[in-house]
Design a protein that fits this description.
378 residues; alpha+beta; Ribosomal Protein S5, domain 2; Alpha-Beta Plaits; six-stranded mixed beta sheet; four-stranded antiparallel beta sheet; binds alpha-D-galactopyranose
């Protein structure tokens, strides 16, 4: 059955429309987004698709193809978190209303192909598809970056995960064939052409199948540590420490853990800028070592890798990859691998073999090309 047919069989009437919002991978710029820094994600072809019909009686009915049973029925003026998947959708309705926008209710059916818990922003896809549908159905006239902000607020306040702005902006604002260079301080954006195939290259995503969870507190601890660092250094955010001043800044910090966090953020922002320059110069292969450096920094300084991610990176590099790193929040999830298109199969095989030898679950390996951001499908 199509999304529309399922909607009709659930609710007994047709949806007003169908919208889609993608998951993302982040090419470079990890954990920089809550430090006012730089990120560079691109949208995946995997999307959350929502069939939605406006209703003006204050009732919000939510259904997901991934969950057995009848739609969950809520009232828009009494939304409170439940701890389940509906929080990502209800949280957006809550955030819109809390910001003063009129959202009177809706019937919603969602089907998603974004792998969950894989560090590929399945939650942001759910939030953004909801925001875009409600924005259009209630003619709220909000811009994409504003939708992303409201979705982040839904995640921070309603869901209770202290994440940055990258994932929602990627899902809302990415465009086909481009990576999105985003300055998370002022949300300035640049669409950077990212056509690896034209250079004989490809980017593999390696989903380690190790589920990550931000709510376990490690993400929040890193964020708090970064804020402590900024505070001790007397800056608004770690973004304000220029790379050239890093050593002097580190000398002023006595806490070893805070020093490591600061070093990661300052060097990572620098890596994003270098990747931008290399792509502009058409020197795409040269970004490989920067990806690998980024992984070492996340593993050793930020300390958010895990044995499966490290094995994926090390194996890919030994099998001839140009660069590899974990992507997303960490503690599991996915790695990305830059390879010559001709050796993609060899590298994938090496990854599967290494995981089997280590006794890990078989990874899911697929090729990622930059896909469009959120859109109305019908
Ligand atoms: C998660 C968060 C993002 C970002 C990344 C790490 O995906 O949702 O805001 O902090 O981790 O770069």
């Amino acid at each position: 059955m199509t999304v529309t047919e399922t909607f009709e069989s659930l609710y007994g009437h047709a949806p007003d429309g169908v919208w889609a919002a993608p998951g993302r991978v982040n090419l470079i710029g990890e954990h920089t987004d809550y430090n006012d820094g730089f990120v560079m994600p691109f949208a995946l072809p995997h999307t959350a698709v929502a069939a939605v019909r406006r209703r003006d009686d204050g009732v919000l009915r939510l259904h997901s193809a991934d969950v057995e049973g009848a739609p969950v029925e809520l009232r828009v003026d009494e939304l409170t978190p439940s701890g389940g998947w509906t929080d990502y959708v209800a949280g957006v309705a809550w955030a819109l209303r809390d910001a003063g926008h009129t959202v009177g209710g809706a019937d919603v059916h969602i089907e998603s192909t974004v792998p969950t818990g894989a560090g590929l922003s399945s939650s942001a896809a759910l939030e953004v598809v909801t925001a875009l549908a409600l924005c259009e159905l209630y003619e709220l006239g909000l811009q994409r970056w504003q939708l992303a902000r409201l979705c982040q607020r839904a995640e921070n306040v309603f869901v209770g995960a202290p994440t940055g702005i990258m994932d929602q902006t990627a899902s809302a604002c990415c465009t086909d064939g481009h990576a999105l260079f985003l300055d998370t301080r002022d949300l300035a954006q640049r669409q950077v052409p990212f056509d690896l195939a034209a250079h004989g290259l490809c980017l593999l995503v390696v989903d380690t199948q190790v589920k990550h969870a931000h709510s376990d507190g490690e993400y929040g601890k890193r964020r708090a540590g970064c804020e402590t660092g900024a505070d001790r250094l007397g800056v608004t955010a770690l973004r304000d420490i220029p790379y050239e001043d890093l050593d002097a800044a580190l000398d002023r910090l006595d806490d070893a853990e805070v020093r490591r966090l600061v070093r990661h953020i300052v060097t990572e922002n620098r890596r994003v800028e270098r990747v931008i320059d290399l792509l502009a110069a058409g020197d795409v292969r040269a970004i490989g070592p920067l990806l690998t450096e980024g992984h070492a920094s996340l593993r050793d300084d930020f300390r958010i890798s895990c044995p499966e991610l490290d094995l994926a990176v090390d194996t890919a590099l030994s099998a001839g990859a140009l660069g590899a790193r974990m992507t997303g929040g960490g503690f599991g999830g996915s790695a990305i691998v830059l390879v010559e298109a001709a050796s993609a199969e060899t590298v994938s095989k090496a990854l599967r073999a290494a995981f089997e030898t280590a006794g890990f679950r078989a990874p899911r390996v697929f090729t990622a090309t930059p896909a469009p951001g959120a859109r109305r499908v019908s």
